[in-house]
Design brief:
Length: 121
């Protein structure tokens, strides 16, 4: 799973949730592997997990946000490009949990997060 992500290959990784982002969706489908990867990255980085150079933490990318919070401030996926990797992961986690009207691919969720692949054993 991780090796295929790190190599840039995303087999069958589309996340489908919703018709909306309210959590009232009747049909909720998502790829458990993507959800697990996002959860793993969020759990590690919210505790200040650093990159291989030990010079960057997701906490440093979170202005005006509680480093321990995984709720609030989520945006829909069409806006993901405006946010850094931390917000990308928070948004992914929130949308996976709440349900979203947009189909989500691993490429979209992780497009700006390639540095964190090196953190996964």
């Amino acid at each position: 799973m991780v090796s295929s992500l790190a190599s840039g290959k995303f087999p069958d990784m589309t996340i489908m949730k919703g018709p909306d982002c309210t959590g009232r969706s009747e049909s909720k489908f998502y790829n458990h592997n993507v959800a697990r990867l996002v959860n793993t990255l969020v759990d590690r980085t919210r505790h200040g997990y650093r990159d291989e150079n030990n010079d960057f933490s997701f906490r440093h990318s979170m202005p005006n946000r509680n480093p321990g919070s995984l709720t609030g401030g989520a945006v829909c996926y069409e806006d993901l490009g405006k946010y850094d990797c931390w917000n990308c992961l928070l948004t992914a986690k929130n949308k996976i949990r709440a349900g979203c009207h947009k189909p989500i691919s691993a490429e979209l969720v992780l497009q700006d997060c390639s540095i964190w692949f090196r953190m996964i054993p």
